[in-house]
Amino acid sequence: MCTSLKYVNGDCYFGRNLDLEYSFGEKVVITPRGYKFELRKEKMLNTKYAMIGMATVAGKYPLYAEAVNEKGLYIAGLNFPGNAVYNDETDGKLNITPFEFIPWLLGNFATVDEAEESIKNINLININFAENMTLAPLHWMISDRERCIVVEQRKDGLNIFENEYNVLTNNPPFEYHRWNMNNYINLTNTTPENRFSQKLDLSTYSRGMGSIGLPGDVSSASRFVRAVYNLSNSESTKSERSSVSQVFHVLDSVAMIRGAALTPEGKSDMTRYSCCINADKGIYYYKTYENCRITAIDMNSENIDGDSLTVFELERDLQIKYSNSKESI
Ligand SMILES: C[C@H](CCC(=O)NCCS(=O)(=O)O)[C@H]1CC[C@H]2[C@@H]3[C@H](O)C[C@@H]4C[C@H](O)CC[C@]4(C)[C@H]3C[C@H](O)[C@]12C
Question: What is the pTM assigned to this prediction?
Fold first, then answer.
């Protein structure tokens, strides 16, 4: 399972948990401006904008799970099994494969408004990257500072939803999550008053009683509500450190702990990595399941006009800083 979110607090930040029972060979990858992507059905993409995100690299091709470009446009793919539909090639449409979707949008467009014009004409086609890589059934959160949209290509066609919650998880389709939020209208981060019955003497005995009823499980529907609750009530100063820390705290509140949810095959679905991207500065912060120390990669410290990908292996070993010893492990 996965959760993606946007937090605007001075700068604009995007966060994402990638929950999966296996590693997909993920690395932080910077694609420079002017990088050439051969597209399966459309003419060559020559990227106008550089991008940074988490990807596996196949040959010279970065297969991104999520990324942001130098203009602050973000896109994340999240699992949408049973609902994502990819079509055959159609005349008169822009025929893009799901793995081309992120480079296409981030390579060409600076804002959601610009990207949306192109998305309306896109037909996501059923061509996989390689024989041993089946198509990933995805829906997408696409966002900049101003807008956040969700794109779902389903059997009823390609849908674009305005996402005022700034959160996306997995199934069911987005209309469900949006409607389901109404069930939580009564939750509050303030101290609740007795509205149960004036005939009864009920009072609070603990902090946080306004959030009783907030779902605590890791299902997609529940993670959606919990992330929206924590995000929309979020408070942090506008400093970089405070915002980054806050985004990781919200992501932690919906993270999957190894062993807590098993796939039908008995494997642990777990949060492989969490990231927080400062979209204004082009900085990609992440931590992994094993290593909860935050690592940062600044896109603008690299040559984003070069002609090759810049790839960073993940810092996966747990790093501990001792306060009373010179040794750090
Ligand atoms: C599994 C990832 C999504 C995580 C998620 O949403 N999990 C939820 C599980 S569940 O529904 O709730 O059960 C998706 C997001 C992007 C996907 C990757 C990207 O689409 C890029 C390529 C595409 C190739 O076809 C397959 C490998 C791949 C490298 C994909 C592997 C995997 O399917 C990724 C990493």
Answer: 0.95
